[in-house]
């Protein structure tokens, strides 16, 4: 057996010992598609054999057709762009606030003493629980969506920023003290880089939560967006449209998360540089 | 050269603990000549690190006074450089940027700083690794970078807290030679804390032997051998046995 294949202990070249590395990589990656392909086949069979009525579960071909129609008419992109815009604005608001909250609680025991208990209490209430109250306060316009997303993003980001800062080894801060860094220098040179991994974990989790929260609020109160597309499809009994919207929600969520992961690896080159 | 360049007078240190206070250093008095190499040797927990932390300004004395070059020691200052046992390089910065960071608040221009950094990386023999990440370095190389960082501000004294304690024996011996060479080249007043008696006598002009609970100076041993020294010199062995006998008694 080729010794260069023995890298990852799990896939130590046992499965495809004769393939060159790029092909083996491809083989490994395509495993991820096996299950979806099987499900697709099951779905197709279920419709063709009429295990389920086509009114309830449209065949995959119809879903694809609807997807293309909606895409070409611009309708899909319209709803998608509305949702994206909402999540970006809401997430930006929540991120800025969450970073500031996490930073100030992480840097000051006093701020922590004032804010953390209240914050933990508030974060126990699920995002959905806030929607009725917020609806009364700000109505069902864009503000509601921004606030719901911001809140969904705020909680995980604050917690992760806070705990990331608290986990910084005191020895790193002592070095900063030896060279007499002021607060701005400490933040930029030590605290932020040291807390970056946990900050990114928070951000990725936050964005996923924010995206889910948005779809939820669009289901409940909206006349635009991917969530609305689902409601609309259900009301008109067009399950193909519902499924198209679901696919888009999943796809966007995946892209957002992978995009951040990519950014993270780029920002943290040093972590991959060990011999 | 003044004989009380670094001067400690009746230094006392206590830490508040749950049930009262912990007396860590008691009546430490010591004068260090300019350019001298002082080794402080003692068992674990006898207050060696605390003493260095007082000197670098990370802790404040509970009593007594510490002076460097006539001025009292208050807080940290670039005129006092330190190397810790764990190299404490920032993993997100390259070797070069780690050393450069020590000059963040220096009045030098950017070009001068870079020049200074490379000069000191050359001094520790790591110029070729300027762009490497700390994760790519061995323990010995990391400690060399830490020494370069400790020296890059051209401090008046260099403080080292068991800098080679975590290294294997071969690397440790190599870095001891290296430190002796750097000290000779730079002529910088140096205080080395160690629990390794061999290291203490090989490097020090004088060896301060500390005793525990509370930490105080047992005695001070003059190492009457010129530098550079040979590790196998019989006189070093004599002194070493002498000091070790001291520890056996306590
Ligand atoms: N910040 C602190 N608070 C309380 N006790 C401390 C503190 N720093 C050190 N000590 C105690 O002081 C004693 C001496 O510690 P240290 O100076 O690290 O010894 P050494 O470096 O010789 O091993 C130890 O008993 C240690 O637990
Ligand atoms: Mg110590």
TrEMBL record, chain A:
One Gene Ontology biological process: alkanesulfonate transmembrane transport
Compartments (UniProt record): Cell membrane
Membrane topology, from the record: Multi-pass membrane protein
SUPFAM superfamilies: MetI-like
Keyword Metal-binding: no
GO cellular component: plasma membrane
Keywords, comma-separated and alphabetical: Cell membrane, Membrane, Transmembrane, Transmembrane helix, Transport
RNA-binding among keywords: no
Positions of the ABC transmembrane type-1 domain: 80-260
Main location: membrane
InterPro entries: MetI-like, MetI-like_sf
Record field: transmembrane: 87-107, 114-140, 146-169, 190-207, 242-263
Pfam family, one: BPD_transp_1
Family: Belongs to the binding-protein-dependent transport system permease family.
Protein name per its UniProtKB record: Sulfonate transport system permease protein
The organism's taxonomic lineage, starting at the top: Bacteria, Pseudomonadati, Pseudomonadota, Gammaproteobacteria, Pseudomonadales
From TrEMBL, chain B:
GO terms for MF: ATP binding; ATP hydrolysis activity
EC number(s) on file: 3.6.3.-
Key words of the record: ATP-binding, Hydrolase, Nucleotide-binding, Transport
SMART domains tied to this protein: AAA
Signal peptide range in chain numbering: none
CDD domains: ABC_NrtD_SsuB_transporters
Name of the protein this chain belongs to: Sulfonate transport system ATP-binding protein
Native source species: Azomonas macrocytogenes
Lineage of source species: Bacteria, Pseudomonadati, Pseudomonadota, Gammaproteobacteria, Pseudomonadales
